[in-house]
Amino acid sequence: MDEPAIDDQRPDLRTATLAEAGEFGLIAALTDRFPSAEHVLVGPGDDAAVLRVRSGHVVVSTDLMVEGRHFRREWAEAGDIGRRAAAQNLSDIAAMGGRATSLTIGLAAPADLPAAWALAFADGFAEECAKVGAVVVGGDITRAEEIVIAVTVLGACTVAPVLRDGARPGDVLALCGRQGWAAGGLAVLTRGFRSPRVLVEAYRRPEPPYAAGPQAAEAGATSMIDVSDGLLSEVGHLAAASGVAIDVRTDALEVAEPLHAVGAALGADPLGFVLTGGDDHALLATFAGADAVPEGWRVIGSVGEGAGVTVDGAPHEGPTGWVHF
Amino acid sequence: MDEPAIDDQRPDLRTATLAEAGEFGLIAALTDRFPSAEHVLVGPGDDAAVLRVRSGHVVVSTDLMVEGRHFRREWAEAGDIGRRAAAQNLSDIAAMGGRATSLTIGLAAPADLPAAWALAFADGFAEECAKVGAVVVGGDITRAEEIVIAVTVLGACTVAPVLRDGARPGDVLALCGRQGWAAGGLAVLTRGFRSPRVLVEAYRRPEPPYAAGPQAAEAGATSMIDVSDGLLSEVGHLAAASGVAIDVRTDALEVAEPLHAVGAALGADPLGFVLTGGDDHALLATFAGADAVPEGWRVIGSVGEGAGVTVDGAPHEGPTGWVHF
Hints:
The structure is a homodimer of 325-residue chains.
Chain A: H1 6-9, H2 18-21, H3 23-33, E1 40-42, E2 49-52, E3 57-66, H4 78-94, E4 98-109, H5 115-130, E5 135-143, E6 148-157, E7 172-176, H6 181-190, H7 197-204, H8 212-218, E8 223-226, H9 231-242, E9 245-248, H10 257-266, H11 270-276, E10 283-287, E11 298-304, E12 308-311
Parallel strand pairs in A: 4-5, 9-12
Antiparallel strand pairs in A: 1-2, 3-6, 4-6, 7-10, 7-11, 8-10, 9-11
Helix pairs in contact in A: 3-5, 4-5, 6-7, 6-10, 6-11
């Protein structure tokens, strides 16, 4: 039986749309881009992947990103959107005190999306994963009206996972990582500007402090969360889950110099970016006392009896972060 | 400090839209619906779930469903769409010879989607998962123009996972489960009809033979896949991955009686539903000989040297299954 010479009919993925590339052509090209790892017993291409788990447990989280809502193609290149998609998921594992090992990607996209966009997205995604030694082990692609990216991340902890509900009165609240930078960059982009470049880059390429998650867990953090939607709203999650009150001290927050420039230009309080901005994926954790706070973390508040979040002892007016509906 | 009386402001989820219900209200209502299980160390509500893994490995798969492409709200109730979303993922684990334990759900949906739809979807999803003892351990919700459902399923195998690439010349090809029923039901619905009811129900509520996956693995299946997109296209995946030729014998295929009625009414060959239909999630596997085929499986073809798929010894004309782009 003669086999068709399919090589000759393969579309050029540098210029093809997803429809022209076809599901299987695109999957083959994507799979080629993803490195494997020792723990991957069966990688992409079968009904499911099979991963070795030595720790006796797996930490798992899922996030969605929708075009026009979580990203805009005109505001960031495909590779950077890939980095952000990976970063927000890797950060969820860090926020448990864990290390990510494996991810799956679901990509729903219009038929006319350039295949090159999907490939560049995959490259950026894989690069971000490589920062923590994680790899892509599977996925799905289908047609849709708008781009929806669904990522699931798996990982493991070396000590007990740090939950949101362990903060106790007397604990201190600490922050690790840049905070407010991405929100400043987004505010700039939203108004059609491209500078300060350092903030725009912070939005396009967040640098979550992945290693600080396990570091905090080993240091005995009593609760932890990553700042995805806004500092105050995440502090609110810790307070609600733990059944405590948390006060944030603004004099302890670092307002980066370029945020002052953006605040002046836009007529906004630069502290607002820090208090309500998300997307940097800084880590927030509570510790039993200032002595327990590890290097690289900054004490920004305190935990008390009661409920809710206060800023410098007073209720905060206005939004506390991103609203999904 | 006084706490706001949030209970009084809670929207009625029986009548609210997603936007009115709000992200956190909806998540709380959804989480309440999902039972837990002994292996779930940390369930929904933190940055990630934590699952106990005793087997030393995890089997993982991801699938997307898009409204208008994979389902239509006018063709099936929310609970049935939830069942199908779960079924197609649970089936991927069965096709490795495994048992599913845990799932995450990502739901991107318009702001005006009734919250009741999402809750009914979740109920159906959880019911289907309960068939195999699996539970929902996490998820994400966000706003989008159309409904996109992203599911990731985790599971484990008790014997070595059965891949697609192990079919060898001399093996027999066998099928377990209904095949073509859902395609017949979909053909009926597409044309605006609602009967034969048994086929419409088969489309709305697939009954994948979950237990047949581990059964085949224990019986020494050499390769296995589930029929998601079409019988012949899935046989093609087995043939390509294994580097063999596979012939399907139509006289061995069961063409259910109602498919004859639909074929006659629509002027279509009822065998077409069986050969190219998906969505029933029947299982296809190869075994070293007819003696190795376990009870409940039907031999429908044979594996030989070469490449590609034939039907009764001849190439098949026309589509072999569902095309995603």
